[in-house]
Structures are given as C-alpha cells and as structure tokens.
Amino acid sequence: MKKLDISKLDVLSLIRYDACTRCGECTTTCPTGGEAQEDELVTPRGKILRLREFYKAQYGLKAKLFGPKEIPPDQLAELSERAYECTICGQCKTVCPAHLDTIEMWENMREFLVHNGLGPMPEHDQLIKSIENYDNPWMQPRTQRSRWARRLETDVKIKDALEEKCEVLYFVGCTAAYDPNIKEMALNTARILSNAKVDFGTLGNEEGCCGSTLLRTGLIDNARKMAEKNIEMFERAAPSIIVTSCAGCYKTIRQDYPKIGKVQPKVMHITEMVNELLDSGRLVLDKRIEQKVTFHDPCHLGRHNGLYEEPRRILKHVPGLEIVEMERNRSESRCCGAGGGVKTAFPDLAQKISGLRIDDAEKSGADILTTSCPFCYQSLKTTIEARGSKLKMTDLMELVASACKD
Ligand code: SF4
Ligand code: SF4
Hints:
Elements (H helix, E strand, L loop, with lengths): L10 H9 L5 H5 L14 H16 L1 H6 L6 H12 L6 H5 L6 H14 L9 H10 L24 E2 L7 E4 L2 H5 L4 H13 L4 E3 L9 H5 L3 H18 L3 E4 L2 H10 L9 E4 H11 L11 E4 L13 H9 L4 E2 L18 H4 L1 H18 L3 E4 L2 H14 L4 E4 H8 L3
Parallel strand pairs: 1-3, 2-3, 2-4, 4-5, 6-7, 6-8, 8-9
Helix pairs in contact: 10-19, 14-15, 17-18
The protein binds iron/sulfur cluster (2 copies).
One iron/sulfur cluster binds next to helix 6 and helix 7.
C-alpha cells in the first residue's frame, strides 16, 4: 500500500487543520465554493476535513492500532483538483472565527500535493516549463523583456540599475513586461516616476520571474531558484527601495523572499510610492477626469498585505473623479477569479468568478472600474468585453498618468 508522504505538511498547518471547528463561516463567501459551485469539497471547510480524514486514516491513532487505510487514487485526485480550484483569495481567512491562516494552509496543501505527485494541474505544465526555460511564464525570449520601454517618450529616462546606481529599482514583472495588453501599466509607471523626478532604474533583461506562480501552485523548490536569482540582482543593484506595480510580485518579494534570502531594500507597491509622492508634492494631479470610478481590491494587495486605503487616497487626488464603492469592498472584496493558477487550469470557473465581480461593479453605478494588479485587470477586462458591459476597465496608474501635471 502506498502511504501519503506528509513530511511537507508543516506542523503549524497540521495544528490548523485540527483546529477547524467545521463552523462553515467560510463556505458562503468563498468565491470558488459556495458562490460559483455547489460542492462541499470545494469549500474551505470541505478541503480541510477531507485532507484531515486522509492523513488520519494513515497516521492517526486508529491507523497506529489497526493499520493504515489505503486512500483510493480517485479520491486523492479529486481532492487535488478541488485544492487547485482555490484562487487563494484569502476571503476564508478573513471570516474564519478560529483565526486560521488559510492562505498559508492552502499553499502548504499544494506543496504537499506536489510532493506526492498529485499536483499541480496538467494545464500548469506549460507555464512552469516556460519559467524554467525563459524566466517568464509567457514563452517569451529573455532578450525581449525590456522591449516595452521602447515605446516611452524620449524625455522618460530609465537607468540600467546594474550599471548605474539608482535610489529606486522598478521591478516590472513578467506580465507588464511582455503582455501587449498590460504593457501600458509599465509605461505609465515609468512616466509617473519620471514626472516626479524619482531616481529609478530597472534590471532590464536580467530581471527574472518573481516566482509567484510557482509558489502559489506548490512548486516551492522551483520558486526558490527564481527568488535566489532575483535576490542576487537586488544585491548587485543595491537600491534603497524596490517598487513594483504588480500585486503578485509585491506579495512575493515582500512576504516570500525574506524566507529565502535577505532583501535589504524597502519593498513598496506603486500605490504606496505614489501616495508618498503626492503627499510630498513631488507629484501633482491637476487634470480633471469627470467620471465615476470604483476600485477593485486585488487579493494580493488587500487581504494579503492590508493595502486598502492607498489606492483610494490616490483616486481622491484626481480632480473631478467621483469614487463609488462596490457593496463588497476592502477585506470583503470578491476575488477577480484569476489567482492561484485558477485562470490557467480552470478558465470557465475563473470567468464565472470574475462575472460576479463585474456584477458588483455594474451595481455600483461606476463608469470606470480600476484596480492595481495586472492579473485582476486582465481577468476583469476579459469579462467586461465578453458580456459587452459599459464599464471601462482602467489600470490605476493609467488614471494617475493621465491626470499628472505636465
Ligand atoms: S482562499 Fe478564497 S477561493 Fe480559496 S478556499 Fe478561501 S475563500 Fe475559497
Ligand atoms: S471558518 Fe474556519 S473554523 Fe469555520 S469551517 Fe471554515 S476554516 Fe473551519
């Protein structure tokens, strides 16, 4: 009989699985289970109880007294699929009365599944191979990583941070660097930093994928290699601050890299930096935008990092802009459906979840839906276009750049 190897289930997670009281508070707000699918196993509680049942059947007291039980392979495969349907949005962590850190539990569960040959999903293979071979998930050559910057106006200067000392290192991220629909995010970030006379540079073609996709799908060893490469680049560039416009890169560099190596510079999301620039008067927004806007909180920025007010404070600086909130906002915000590798492995589910978020945005009466994460932007924009919604999807930095004083 093949026993599950539970060596990758960390002690804290095992304590947390045991501490789940089965109360079910998490089941109704979970965007994957409860809201988008009627299946107990896809809910946070369902996954916890099933995994607990499996490891107790092989390592619990009864297993010690009467021998371990075999877990049928189809049941293991079912648990794995359900575990990968989670967007790791953290909504369950927010509502759990037992204060279980479910975000860490899901990531650890995936590490365990990978270790037992039960994960990730086959649909993730191409992304993973691409990161291994090209340092980005989009099968694009390394030599094209900094190509986005060619579209910048000639007065916007970006230093090569490995050649010239700069105060701020802009970590662009794979999606803003390569995706033709997202490149504006990088361009606008560079324009804003330049407008505020920030001394900044990038790693150019030497920047590698931050490893977020690998971490979220349970491939910890692969992610570690990516992190180590980038940390070495940070040491060579030695900036005071690393800023990123991607919520996924931000979470990874700020929360995960310090577990792998020393990250000396302060790590900031662009919304934090823009707030500082506005407060100090280095950045002035004086162009009017006479529209109603609503902000979608990216999970990696909000629930994972507590940055709820920074984007809203920026919006308040834009003359003419009226801010309206969706009914579910800040820690209660619905997920866009793209996180945790769900968009790659379960695109229909991802679209169903983002559809619920577009419903929220439409009900708010906003003209513009804005956010500060390339994945949320892409996911919500796709759904807006698919359903012919009147909402205009706009990245927050695009709004800032268009309101900037010349
Ligand atoms: S992290 Fe989000 S998608 Fe995953 S189980 Fe919790 S609420 Fe559901
Ligand atoms: S809310 Fe927390 S304690 Fe209650 S069922 Fe969900 S994970 Fe378990």
